[in-house]
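ingest -> validate -> predict -> emit
validate: passed (alphabet ok, no gaps, 452 aa)
predict: started
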Amino acid sequence: MDSRPQNHPDESQALADNSRTGHSSIAKAIEAIRKRQSFIWTVAIAFATVGLQMGQGILLARLLHREGRGEYATAVFWSHFLMFVGLFGGLEVICRYANNATIDRILLRRSAIWLGVATGLVTMILAMLGSIFLIPHDKQYMAGIGCLCGLSILAQNIILIMTGVDRGTGNFRLYNYRRIFAAAALPVLIVICMPFIQMTPGIVILLYVIGSYVTLLVYLQGIPQPLTGPTAFPTKRLLKESRPYAFSMFAADLFDRLDLMLVLWLAPIALQGDYAAMVPVVYPLVVIPNTLGMFLFNAGAKVGSAPNKQALFRTLLALVAVQTVMVVGFWIVAKPLILLLYRADFEPAIPLALWLAPASGVKGIVQCLEGFLKGRGRPQASILCRIVAAATMIVMTLVLFQHYSVQAVAMAALVSQILCFMWIAWLVCYELRKSKEDADLISSPAVSDIID
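emit:
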């Protein structure tokens, strides 16, 4: 007779349930660790990318000086302003499709390429027209170089929309490597050419265009038949689906670059150079929230999932604390750091940096919150907010400019970003409450019976 103890059926079922629960807990823990490591790695790469951008900004300031830096800012304004607006929401559409594991990645990348070609050609033409007709009369001599810069937009649009595949799939390692290469292209080309060519705004922009297309070739690696192979979706369909995101992107980018537009039209070339030189100095203040915004977009885009309200609030409170510490730290080191990196030529620009720092800190939080709303499929929720904030910035700048000069723009930017933060935070709270109500409705017995 078998003397081994026999398990009761209920006990066996309980053991099996416990085993499954244990495996599930381990799997969740591993997934949480993987996501945390991915986030930390992405933040580190983002800081490295920003470091390259800051290095590029310092290099340009030292090579071109205040007036040359202002001329460069004038020439690139319309190309940079329309770069993200001209995506027409294509980045977000590709990102949402990439979140669907059933869609072939290679086919989706080809769709992203053709969407980038379509949006890039239109945006390139618009940027050239803006450089010719929509810059102040006393800066019209930069129109030709501005048109040259417009040639970069076709490559940049394809690159940016293609990143949506890596972001949507959570393949942040590849996404990060490519970001580093893209950020390094221009400063590396400048350093290589410096011993042989005198750097002027025109030469730098020519190198920028060359670097854009070299980066595009790197992005196309690993895609068989990038222009001739089959695609996941026709371009016309993607353009139609991207419209809500396009309106949102236009409002957001118009607002985010409105300060540069006001400086372009109101400030003389040297003061424009001061403002343009200080913008990269505060780039680190948007790194963490921008990176977190990508993860919140993916979390919000998960079909059929209700966001964890408590976890989101804890994350955002921690983000506000981190941003506050970083802004205060920047205020402490700003003057000696700017004098060391930019030299005494840019000492008049230090007050601008002190105002731009908190504005960038709040801007990062706003972009993070908006990433969650876009993931939930509500890209248009913040459009009215941006319009009101933009009007506030314009009025405040015009009122204060005569007394505070270009500092008035930075002051108005801070006030407008705070307004956006309060408005969009309210929208996020509303979305969380709505998501909970929808989840409660679906889990109710009556609805569950219908679904089952």
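DSSP finds 17 helices and no strands in the chain.
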